[in-house]
Design brief:
The chain is mainly beta and 717 residues long. It has six domains: 277 residues, no CATH class; 83 residues, Immunoglobulin-like, CATH 2.60.40.10; 82 residues, Immunoglobulin-like (Sandwich); 78 residues, Immunoglobulins (Immunoglobulin-like), CATH 2.60.40; 75 residues, Immunoglobulin-like; 89 residues, Immunoglobulin-like (Sandwich). It is 1% helix and 46% strand. It is built from one helix and 61 strands. The strands form 18 sheets. Strands 2, 3, 6, 8, 12, 15, 18 and 19 form an eight-stranded mixed sheet that branches. It has a five-stranded mixed sheet with strand order 29-34-33-31-32, with no helix packed on it. It has a five-stranded mixed sheet with strand order 36-42-41-38-39, with no helix packed on it. The longest helix has 4 residues. The radius of gyration is 50 Å and the shape is flat.
């Protein structure tokens, strides 16, 4: 692990403040939202963020207007990331942010107000200022009069600077701010304010402006805050920080953003922060592929001059590609996975640098070969009728003028192959679907394509049904066996006024009689034709009898499970009865005895002279019986008469009985109607005396009903 404590930074005695800023938002009518962001080093020490944090508000004459107390900060641990790809997260660094905000109403003041928060102290290990352990910080923002007249809000920084920088590596960081009003922003380095002291680390109120500055140790200054080559600078327009640190350690840096409107300065937001410069030990691995131009089984694929590169580098963020085209310098890219169009066929040396310019940079290269693309495509063909088929094929796609062509025609064709670019007059002698293959090649490459062509048969119309003789009502499936071309149309008539356009329809006949059936087929492609087939008296529909059944009663108990059935059928010559319990009877008009409780569905089957059948089903129920009897006394004297006590009953599925003596103590429990109380307690070890005992019973009956009852029983000795 890279520990900042091993870099001879000096002793760190407690948690220290390392940065912050104040900004405001105008809410209108003199209301403002005040926001304070404070950052601290949380690696050592336990000193908490201020709660409350006090912001002192001064008028233009330096008079204290009020103190604004901000409570309950939102505290977030900031991951010690770095914008440097060589950093591997192994430095001992801990940073926390406290986010405070609250609203306040400020009356208009011609000179505006200044908001101040002061806190001590900074890390002892800071290298670019004198006495950092006794140097505090001042965070301040001024609210100008325009905040009332034009409801102006101040700028605020977009992101916190990277916590860790790598020595001898480029620093490129976007330190820009945003402004809610869209005002012009200008950036520069500036002197960080000092404030508070070790004796008074969090003064309330904070001191009034003007404020002193932290004292830089030469050669460091506000504009040269850390050892770097090239020197660290801030772009005044974009706010981008650039440079290259050259010394390990911790350094204080302050950046100011100036807010202008129509050339008038409105506010300045100064943020100072601490850079940690460490020795980064990360390494990168440069690796890439160019799949479409790499050898595949010794064959060079011909995919054209445009190549997609697949970046497989590890631990890398920035890339520099050179595609190896001689005589030009524009054949470069910084994309992750670039696509490059080479100017001509040939062999190229393509190189990639991962993290160029950084200490962990790595490079690699590939030798690739590119050829003009060959894209073979066979023109699609509509199907043709067998009686007049003759196909013309065209080789399409991308190929050079000197390419060669080779066609193969499967099936009973007038030719098996051709070397023409566009062969014509290709004829098949039998209907079917056949594959046509094309190979296009040149001295370097080849490619393939194929299509299927259809030769349609002459139209033939035919059908059959699953049943010709039926008992109505009855659905009939019509199986279409016609030989047709793709997209054929169908029209059926069923002889009873019904019709259908389906290929193989199902039709319901519900009236007895003989019916003609016809099918008309129209081919719209291939062998274009229309033909009709008619079968007279094809469907012979016979009537069914009308089955009917009655039962009395429809509900009976198991104590009297007798059901009388009556045949109500009409038009039958015979019938029989299925009783629903697995039994049947040739005599329908019977009285039947069911042997068990439950629901039954007896069914009558009736048949007529045409051998057509009909059925009718009814529902009956045989109900269970439920009753419970509990005696009120017993004499357990072993004389064989009334020696035991228990409940009796029918229709009981589950049972629980508990018996208590007069003091409420349990003397007996049973879950079975077959286990009775013999007048003993404690598992039969104690004889219960004569007296009155209480019982409680819980029952679930055959109807799944839960019932309970209680009462008294007298024991006589």
């Amino acid at each position: 692990m890279i520990s900042l404590l091993l870099l001879n930074f000096g002793s760190i005695k407690a948690t220290h403040i390392i940065g912050g800023e104040i900004y405001y938002d105008c809410l209108g009518d003199g209301d403002f939202k005040i926001t304070v962001r404070i950052y601290r080093d949380c690696l050592l020490g336990q000193a908490p963020f201020d709660d409350p944090l006090t912001v002192s508000i001064y008028d233009a004459q330096g008079n204290l207007f009020t103190n604004l107390e901000l409570f309950n900060p939102i505290i977030t641990n900031i991951l010690p990331g770095s914008i440097n790809p060589c950093y591997q997260g192994d430095a001992a660094v801990c940073v926390e942010e406290a986010f405070y905000t609250d609203d306040i109403n400020l009356p208009f003041s011609p000179g505006g107000y200044t908001l101040v928060y002061q806190r001590c102290c900074r890390n002892n290990s800071i290298l670019n200022i004198f006495d950092p352990g006794d140097t505090g910080a001042t965070y301040t923002i001024s609210i100008p009069p325009s905040a009332w007249t034009e409801c102006n809000s101040s700028p605020r920084y977009s992101q916190f600077p990277p916590i860790v920088l790598c020595i001898n590596d480029p620093l490129i960081f976007d330190h820009s701010a945003t402004d809610p009003d869209g005002d012009s922003l200008v950036y520069s380095f500036c002197d960080p304010f000092e404030g508070a002291s070790a004796d008074l680390p969090m003064p309330v109120p904070s001191a009034a402006p003007p404020f002193g500055f932290a004292n830089f140790i030469p050669p460091y200054s506000a504009n040269y805050p850390l050892a770097s080559n090239p020197a660290v600078v801030v772009n005044p327009i974009t706010g981008q920080l650039t440079g290259e640190p050259t010394m390990l350690g911790q350094f204080v840096v302050a950046v100011c953003v100036f807010e202008y409107r129509n050339g008038v300065l409105l506010s300045v937001n100064k943020r100072d922060f601490q850079f940690n410069i460490v020795q980064c030990s990360g390494s990168s691995i440069a690796e890439f592929e160019a799949p479409i131009v790499e050898l595949e089984g010794g064959i060079i694929p011909c995919n054209g001059l445009s190549v997609n590169f697949l970046n497989l580098s590890q631990n890398a963020t920035f890339y520099q590609w050179d595609f190896g085209v001689p005589g030009i310098t524009s054949d470069v890219s910084t994309l992750v996975d670039p696509v490059y169009a080479f100017p001509d066929t040939g062999v190229y040396r393509v190189s990639l640098i991962a993290n160029p310019g950084y200490s962990c940079a790595d490079s690699t290269f590939l030798i690739i070969t590119v050829f003009h693309a060959i894209d073979a495509q066979v023109s699609q063909q509509d199907g043709q009728c067998i009686t007049s088929n003759s196909f013309d094929f065209i080789a399409q796609g991308e190929f050079q003028s000197y390419a060669d062509f080779y066609w193969e025609f499967e099936g009973p064709c007038n030719i098996a192959n051709s070397t023409l670019q566009n062969p014509t007059g290709i004829v098949w002698s039998e209907p079917g679907t056949y594959k046509v293959k094309l190979r296009i090649s040149d001295p370097n490459c080849e490619n393939y394509d194929s299509i299927l062509v259809t030769v349609y048969p002459v139209l033939e119309v035919d059908f059959n049904v699953n049943e010709e003789i039926i008992c109505v009502p009855r659905e009939v499936l019509f199986n279409n066996n016609s030989i047709v071309s793709q997209g054929a149309y169908f029209y059926w008539t069923f002889g009873d006024g019904g019709f259908s356009y389906e290929e193989s329809p199902i039709h319901l006949y519900d009236t007895p009689g003989n019916y003609d059936v016809s099918l008309t087929v129209a081919n719209t492609v291939g062998c274009i034709d229309t033909f009709t087939v008619l079968f007279e008296d094809y469907i012979r529909a016979k009537p069914r009898p009308d089955a009917g059944l009655d039962a009395s009663p429809r509900e009976a108990s198991i104590l009297s499970p007798y059901i009388t059935f009556t045949d109500l059928s009409l038009g039958e010559i015979g019938s029989w009865l299925e009783l629903g319990d697995g039994q049947s009877s040739d005599n329908v008009n019977i009285t039947y005895t069911y042997q068990d409780t439950g629901y039954y569905s007896p069914r009558i089957i009736a048949v007529n002279e045409q051998n057509c059948y009909d059925t009718a089903t009814i529902k009956i129920r045989i109900k269970p019986v439920y009753n419970v009897y509990v005696p009120n006394s017993f004499t357990p004297n072993e004389d064989g008469v009334n020696d035991f006590f228990n409940a009796k009953g029918e229709g009981i599925k589950t049972f629980l009985m508990i018996i208590f003596d007069r003091w409420g103590d349990e003397v007996f429990t049973t879950t079975s109607l077959d286990i009775s109380w013999d007048g003993r307690a404690n598992g039969g070890k104690k004889i219960s005396p004569s007296g009155v005992y209480n019982y409680k019973i819980w029952i679930r009956n055959v109807l799944s009903e839960e019932k309970s009852l209680q009462g008294n029983v007298t024991l006589y000795r």
